[in-house]
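Hey,
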Amino acid sequence: MIDWTATALAVRRANAAYLMTQPESKAAFEAIGDEWISLLSTDSHQAVVSRSAKGYHLSISGTRASKLMMLDVFADVELEPASVAGGTVTKGVLCGMCDLWSWAKSLAPADALWNVSGHSLGASRTHLTPLFVDVAHIGELHSFEAPKFAAGDFYAAHAGALANMVCTLNGRDTWAAWPWDDSRWQYRPLNEHVWLKSDGYAMIAAKEWPGAGSLGDHDVDAVQARCEAVAAAMLTAAA
């Protein structure tokens, strides 16, 4: 059962993770209701650590191409395999994640519960959470429009740790279908996926998603709008 209130907050965090200045970032996360802790922005990754009653939140930015952060684009197209615990992922998605998690963990107590969310490249990096956090310390995971940057062996090995992750695909998102024709990278988490549509959503097996067809469906603002619309409808129905 999807907690749509939590999902709507998670996509707001994933969207706010793109903001590149500390004042903008702090204001955006405080508007969500979080205690903003820190922003990390490097050539290869960007993320925000914040805190709420649910624990610590790591919100990971997607590709920052519009900000001319070209190593993000390189990460999207670097499809050579890298061996990790439990399987194989692309070198691009793994790039910088050890440093990112070292930074995040330095801001929290050792027993912190981590809630992780991201959009696009940041969503695929959310899938890597079990490589850096013990299962007992993983809270809510939200993946919005993740491309296919991990192999089937990885998802099989970490199925338990990722079992409660909310995986969202919007419309016919062309970039979430990337890589389009590389047989090594045609896998998604084993979870049922949320398929956002103009008239609501459906729960589907990942293989049932129709795939590429619209560049605009990747836009994080569009994804946020649809998640918030579903969350509002759920609240109205429950009233």
